[in-house]
Amino acid sequence: MSKKHTLYQHGTLALLVPGLLDGTITMKELLEHGDTGIGTGEGLDGELIILDGVPYQVDHNGNINVVDDDFTLPFANSHFAEYKRLTDIEELSQAELDKNIGAMTSANTFYSIKVHGTFTNIKTRAVKKSHKPYATLGKTAEDQSIFLRESVEGTLLSYYSPQIFDGVAVGGFHHHFLSDAHDFGGHVLGFGGATGRVEIQQFDTLEQHLPIHNKDFMNYDFSDWDILGEIHNAE
Question: Signal sequence: where (predicted)?
Fold first, then answer.
């Protein structure tokens, strides 16, 4: 089976909801499963975007850092890039982009899109690292910084998950961004217009990795949580 068709995911969004924010995989381990990806650090320490095998962290202060091999993450996606051109776009909002891509592919499988071009009125966020005892995802995410650029060139890296996997990942699109100048990025909250080239990579296999050596995760009872409601509020 070709690894080009496999999406690797460590952790689930569901485990973040009650505050299971320990880093349970190292960046070195994650990069063994892909040269492209997104994630967050221990304690929701910023927003990660991996491009061409280089892991960039957008921290709470808006700095772009290349993280070390021993940087740990509670949740991440990665894959080996083999994108194919899908279409060119001009001045599409985030909602329009999501809708257009959705009309050109299936909603029933995982895929990644990569858009390189110019983005206007783009808003991103990065969360400040928290420490044990961790608060819930919703509470921790309140301590976030919002960044805005009127116009910036860069790369939008996104993963699409089918709705039936909502809770494992984000049902629908999960967008991260990094500017070409490496001075702006984060989890995308929206943009007014995107102009550039859209590439896509479809997956037929989801490799789901769980942190079985983390006692907090293994012993936690999720039954009292509205997991999907909490995820949608935080995202």
Answer: none
